[in-house]
Design goal:
The structure is a single chain. By secondary structure, the protein is an alpha/beta fold. It has 2 domains: about 220 residues, Carbamate kinase (3-Layer(aba) Sandwich), CATH 3.40.1160; about 120 residues, 2-Layer Sandwich (VC0802-like). Helices cover about 35% and strands about 25% of the residues. The chain is built from 13 helices and 16 strands. α2 packs across α5 and α11 runs antiparallel to α12. The radius of gyration is 23 Å and the shape is globular. About 40% of the residues are buried. Bound molecules: adenosine-5'-diphosphate, aspartic acid and magnesium ion.
C-alpha cells in the first residue's frame, strides 16, 4: 500500500483535479489518496465559523454562497452533465448553520470547517469514477479516532490502527480526507491547521505503507521558502532527524507532526511536485544524514519578543521558570525561542490573542516588556556567508548560536537578497 497526499493548492480548480487523476492513474499498486480542502477553502470556512458564532447572518449568507459557487463551478467544469456529488453535504452544512451555536467555539469550528475536506474528496471520488477510475470514498472519521480536544485532537493510535487495517482493503484505490477525525461519540474533530500531511502519516503508519508521497507546488523541500528567498534550492535527501528539526523551527512545507509516525516505522516520505510529477523530489528516509547539507533558512514572521524579570528582583530560577511555563502552557502559547539570564527570561512567540492573555497573567509576578513586529530566522548548518545573507543591514534584537544552528530575532523590515 502507498499513501499519496494532495494539499489544497494541488486541487484548487478543475485542472488541479484532472492533474491529480493523471498522477494517480500512473500507479497500479494499491493506493490511499488523502486530500485537503480545495484551494483556500479552510480560510473561507473559518470565516463562516466566525460569522456563525457572532450570529452575523448577512456575512454568513454571503460567505456560504461564495463557498457554494466556488465548489459548484468546479463540479460544473468536471462533469458534462449535472452531478449532485456535493448537494447532500451542502444541505447538511446549511442545516447546521441554521441552528443556534453552542458556547464552545472550538467544538463548533470542528463541526463546520471539515465540510471543506468532505466536499473536495466527494468531488474527486465522483470525478475519478466518471473517467473510469474505480475507487472507494472513505469517511476518514469512521477510522481516524481521536480524543475530544477540538481543533487539536490527539489520535487514539490503537483504535485507529485497527479500524484502518480493516477499512483500507479489498479495493485498489481509496479517496479520503486529511485533517479530520472523530471522538468516541462520533463528533467530528480536526488535527490542527495544515494537518493533512499528518493524516497521510497516520494512515501510512497504521497500514505499514511502503511510502507516503506528499504532492506540493514546489519541487521538494528547498533550503528556504521560495516565496521569501528567491535563490532557494532543492534538497535531494534528508534524514528524519534533520527534517524534524526543520519543521520544528517552522519550515512550513511539512506539518511538524508528520515525521515521527513515519520514522518509527522507517517509512520514507517523498515530497514531490504536482506540477512536475516525473521529477525526483526530496526523499526523507534515513536515520543519518548521509550528504553534506548547505545552509537551510527558516523564517517565522509575526513574532513577539517578550522579556520578563521577577518583580521581587529574585533570580530566574526553577520556581519562576515553572510559573512562566505554566502560564504559557495554559494559554497554549508555543515558545519558538527561549533565552535566560540571571534576572531576565525572554521568549519569542507567534503573535495572537492568546499571547495577550498570557502577558496579562505574567504581569502579576513579573515586569514584562514586549516587542511586536519581529521575525525569527533560523539558519541550520550556518556559515559566515549565510549569516551575512540574513542579517545584512537588519536590526538584530536577539540571537542564539549553537554548533549547528544560528537564530536571530530581527525587527521586521523589507527583505532584499540582492
Ligand atoms: P499543501 O498544498 O500541501 O498544503 P503547503 O502550502 O502547506 O502545501 O506547503 C507548500 C508551501 O510551503 C510552498 O508553496 C512553499 O512556499 C512553502 N515552503 C516553506 N518552506 C519551504 C521549504 N523549505 N521548501 C519548500 N517549500 C517551502
Ligand atoms: N485544509 C486544512 C488546512 O488548510 C488542512 C490541510 O490543508 O492540511 O489547514
Ligand atoms: Mg497546506
Amino acid at each position: 500500500m502507498r499513501i499519496f497526499k494532495f494539499g489544497g493548492a494541488s486541487v484548487k480548480d478543475a485542472d488541479g483535479v484532472k492533474n491529480l487523476a493523471a498522477i494517480v492513474r500512473k500507479y497500479d499498486q494499491p493506493l490511499v489518496v488523502v486530500v485537503s480542502a480545495m484551494g483556500k477553502t479552510t480560510n473561507a470556512t473559518e470565516a463562516i465559523v466566525e460569522a456563525y458564532m457572532q450570529r452575523n447572518s448577512e456575512a454568513l449568507n454571503k460567505l456560504v454562497s461564495e463557498l457554494k459557487s466556488y465548489h459548484l463551478s468546479i463540479v460544473d467544469q468536471l462533469f458534462d452533465s449535472n452531478n449532485g456529488c456535493i448537494d447532500a453535504l451542502l444541505a447538511k452544512l446549511e442545516n447546521k448553520l441554521s441552528t443556534e451555536p453552542s458556547l464552545n467555539y472550538d467544538f463548533e469550528y470542528d463541526q463546520i470547517v471539515p465540510f471543506g475536506e468532505l466536499m473536495s474528496t466527494s468531488i474527486i471520488s465522483a470525478y475519478l469514477k466518471f473517467i473510469g477510475m474505480d475507487n472507494a470514498w472513505v469517511d476518514v472519521r469512521k477510522v481516524l479516532r481521536t480524543d475530544d480536544t477540538y481543533r487539536s485532537a490527539n489520535v487514539d493510535w490503537e483504535l485507529t490502527t485497527a479500524f484502518m487495517k480493516e477499512q483500507f482493503q479489498g479495493k485498489r484505490l481509496f479517496i479520503t480526507q486529511g485533517f479530520i477525525g472523530s471522538t468516541p461519540n462520533n463528533l467530528t474533530t480536526t488535527l490542527g491547521r495544515e494537518g493533512s500531511d499528518y493524516t497521510g502519516a497516520i494512515i501510512a503508519h497504521a497500514l505499514d505503507a511502503e511510502c507516503l508521497a506528499i504532492w506540493k507546488d514546489v519541487p521538494g523541500v528547498l533550503n528556504a521558502d521560495p516565496r521569501w528567498y528567491p535563490n532557494a534550492e532543492k534538497i535531494d535527501e534528508l534524514s528524519y532527524w534533520e527534517a524534524i528539526e526543520l519543521t520544528y523551527y517552522g519550515a512550513q512545507v511539512i506539518h511538524p507532526k508528520t515525521l515521527k509516525p513515519l520514522q518509527n516505522k522507517q517509512i520514507p516520505l517523498l515530497v514531490n511536485s504536482f506540477l512536475n510529477p516525473e521529477e525526483k523530489g526530496t526523499v526523507i528516509q534515513s536515520s543519518e544524514q548521509n550528504s553534506e547539507l548547505q545552509p537551510i533558512y527558516v523564517l517565522k514572521r509575526d513574532q513577539t519578543l517578550i522579556s520578563m524579570s521577577p518583580k521581587d528582583f529574585s533570580f530566574i530560577m526553577e520556581e519562576s521558570l515553572s510559573d512562566i511555563f505554566q502560564i504559557f502552557s495554559k494559554h497554549r502559547v508555543k515558545l519558538n525561542m527561549m533565552q535566560t539570564s540571571a534576572l531576565n527570561f525572554s521568549v519569542c512567540v507567534d503573535e495572537n490573542k492568546r499571547v495577550e492573555k498570557a502577558i496579562n497573567e505574567l504581569q502579576h509576578k513579573f515586569d514584562v516588556r514586549y516587542n511586536e513586529n519581529m521575525e525569527l530566522v533560523t539558519i541550520r548548518h550556518y556559515n559566515e556567508e549565510a549569516i551575512d545573507v540574513i542579517i545584512n543591514g537588519k536590526d538584530v534584537v536577539d540571537s542564539q548560536v549553537s554548533r549547528k544552528t544560528a537564530r536571530y530575532v530581527l525587527k521586521a523590515s523589507e527583505w532584499n537578497f540582492e
